[in-house]
Amino acid sequence: MGIRFLKIAVIYLFAGALLGGYMGATDNFVLAPVHAHLALLGWASLALAGLIYHLYPAAALTLLARIHFWLHNIGLPFFMLGLGLVLTGHAAAVPIVSISAGCVTIGLAAFTANVLMNVKSDPGRG
């Protein structure tokens, strides 16, 4: 599970970098919030979750880890698409943003519960 999170995280890193490069080349930064969310919810959050799941395999084997993975990675692309549409003047996309952001948030709640319940200190590591 940890490796799955790390691999999808680098895809979000690359997508965010492409968007950042596009914004810089066109000198149009209206999509900066999409770029920031790709970097933070995509790359940083998923990479850190991947490292946690790799270091704590008991947490990686839970239903909560699978719920986190799928809700986060189904919700985030729709969230970014919807947010991009709203930022470029398509107010009709607001429900897409709301529903998909809620999906990501529920995924993060599953991750939070998983860490609190299944990430335990290893007496051998201090």
First-to-last CA distance:
25 Å
What's the mean pLDDT score? Answer: 95
**Which strand-content bin applies to the residues?**
under 5%
Major sheet characteristics: none
**Radius of gyration from CA coordinates:** 16 Å
- Overall geometry: globular
- Which runs of at least 5 residues are low in confidence (pLDDT < 50)? none
Into which percent range does the helicity of residues fall?
A: over 70%
The number of distinct helices, counting runs of at least 4 residues, comes to 5
The oligomeric state of the chains shown is single chain
Number of strands: 0
Structural class: mainly alpha
The sequence of SSEs as H and E is HHHHH
Polypeptide structure, described:
By secondary structure, the chain is mostly helical. 82% of the residues lie in helices and 0% in strands. It contains five helices and no strands. α1 (2-26) packs antiparallel against α2 (32-55), α2 (32-55) runs antiparallel to α4 (63-87) and α4 runs antiparallel to α5. The radius of gyration is 16 Å and the shape is globular. The protein starts with a helix and ends in an 8-residue tail after the last helix. The model has no long low-confidence stretch (mean pLDDT 95).
